[in-house]
């Protein structure tokens, strides 16, 4: 296998036909690799957005895909899946693939070279796309809401504001119509010039400012899209959104909505129960 998997999810694809290129069986079950797929896989280095679930169909047989994952094969022929991949995505000497783990028994007709139909669970994908877009918007609104608390320049975010997100975020978990982000407010952030004491004392005001900003952005109905640099899973992709405050561009491997008109609202709740850890919970209400 010499070429990386071609993917259609950046353009919103949820179905397609393809050819089976590899079938791997192990302790985790059977994993199918095809030459082109609409399935978005969970990233093994930054697993913020879950992988797509769905179905593979061939000769009338339907088999479930539990959650698509990153896979890779080295130039020496070593196949690795998900968290077992020993290098970062895009490392030289590896071909990058999308793995489709199967549930239940594998049909006898599912062999290398077979033509299959792939179908993603579209409602789940849509929910995850809303969750991911809401997550990015919330982080940009958070950066604006705490911009006055920096005594040093931490670098700029996609809208040119002080980049609290990049400096403090330690984890991000996206789910359907929402996300949970954790930010470390320790000594390193204070040394970088962030006023954590004032932030803690004004937490409610900061939350209100974020939600007001998000309401303005949602009301704008701004266009949103994923722009890939190439057709394969390993090619860089970025999220673009034409906000009233300017054009936002963030490197991102996930999926997103096409317009902010797909939301009724986006809101956040800030939790500082642990003074060293800010937890931001983002909730999106989809338009019917």
Automatic annotation (TrEMBL):
Query: InterPro entries recorded for this chain?
Result: Alanyl-tRNA_Editing_Enzymes, Thr/Ala-tRNA-synth_IIc_edit
Keywords of this protein's UniProt record, alphabetized?
A: Metal-binding, Zinc
**One example GO MF annotation:** metal ion binding
What name appears for this protein in its UniProt entry?
A: Metal-dependent hydrolase
